[in-house]
């Protein structure tokens, strides 16, 4: 986990963590992607039982969190939409390095969405 000066200036871009409303992660991700903002939502497949019927659904590994790759102009779009907010650690925005995001995405592919393995990496990143 890295910290910035709390502001996104110029054309600097990196991965940030944003919070959403509970159970709205997928719809927020879809809205971001419609606006051309690169985002990542780690998810896992689980089997749920409803009325004696099994159904496989996909749920977020960590609720209320989405990772976004933002530039200053994209940050302004995000603020105008008022969908979510950037997470801060004290006074600085929480940023994730390219290597850490690549590790998370690779782990999600290898674990096929296993919650336990991905939560270990997220806790190492300081997000769980």
From TrEMBL:
The record's section on CDD domains has: NGN_SP_UpxY (cd09895)
**What are the recorded Gene Ontology BP terms?**
DNA-templated transcription elongation
Residue ranges occupied by any NusG-like N-terminal domain in the UniProt entry: 14-104
Tell whether Transmembrane is among the UniProt keywords.
no
User: SUPFAM superfamilies, from UniProt?
Assistant: N-utilization substance G protein NusG, N-terminal domain (SSF82679)
Sorted keywords for this record are: Transcription
UniProt-listed Gene3D superfamilies: NusG, N-terminal domain
Protein name as annotated: UpxY family transcription antiterminator
